[in-house]
Amino acid sequence: MVELLAVLTGLLAGTLTGIVPGAGVLVAMIIATPLLMGFDIIQLLLFYMSLASMVQFTGTIPAVYLGIPGETNSLPAVVEGTKFTKRARAKLAIGISALGSVFGSLIAVLITFVLISVLINHVSVFFANTLKFYLYVFIIIFCLTVYNRGNILVNAPLCLLGFALSMPGESDITPGFRYTFGMEDMQFGVPLITVLIGLLIVPTAFSMLKYDIKSNINTDHNIPFKYTLFYFIRKCIPSSLRGSVIGYLCGFVPGVSTVLATNASYSVEKKFAKKTPARLLVASETANNSGQFASMLPLLLIGIPITGSEVVLYSLLVDAGWSPFQFDRVDLNAEIIFKTIVPWFVFANLVGLLVAWPLAKKTLVILSLPTKYMVVVLVASMLILNSYLGYIDYRLGFYSVCLIVFGITGYFLKKYETIPLIFMFILGNEIEAVFLRQWLI
What we know:
mainly alpha, 20 helices, 2 strands
């Protein structure tokens, strides 16, 4: 019952997150922080899995109906989905996308089931500091060369600033506190939530204001379920298979797993079906869900987060008692995946199929609200969240000052992707310890 509640909560959060322009899994994880602080490890994993899966479904709805990306992975759906909407066949586009998403999720589970024994038998290499060193080197290089159109002159200062913000307080390699500048509040480090709100939510709020969201939806043709299913089987299965495999492989790339999965599958499919919007749409949407499942495996098996939202989840898991020592038994972690995560993952995808297809128009009622009101609610929620966390941490004044500083910083950085800064801020201490051990070795 407790697991079901965690899944249903994640599904609700994912439904809202996917259809609100500018939002995403990372933003949802930040907003849900007070609720998640009371969850245990399994509940946190199920909430995140349900949230991330549902976003892949519902993000397609505003992309197809309104031509607005519901989340960062929806851009191919905007390009190809609106072609259906112009012909009053948006319902068909939503249907085949939802079927492709479920198909991609099941293929991802199947691939994992086939490969898991190989991974378990050779996983000891993952615990070597040397491999962690190279993984973190890869993440740093990725942050420097992928975000902000690969502009190293922008990404390098962001990474350095994030690392600098991670330094104050306790450290894994030095005794006592450091870089507190005589302030007692700094002994516990810079509050994570203030950095996330200031550097992610503030830019998101300004980006939402750019959209004039009104529920002006074309009247669709009444397309029966049997026709949509037959259409998918007859025309889209090969594209969905390719998207599943490509998405799964891309899902392991740190930082941009599902974004890369969607766009890589879309680009490859153009070589097979350049003038077939249905196949292009299904290929990209299938890759979304396949890549989403794959992106969770490094965290679940070896404790390494590879996306921004997983970094937030990792922090919550550690607070809930998640210990790195549990990764000495990867076979047990694999058992948790297949006995606990996978069944609920399949359930979440079936619910996503329902929400993103028969109920698609009904979910768009949320978008009938004026954008400025949605932004006001978002900002107010963040202020309340920051005050609440500051109060229970006995650092309300410090939280408030940090929020102002990072909020102003986020405003001036609103044209840039701040994910490199977030990555280095949250993983800074771990990266420092791994690099120092590697140097000593």
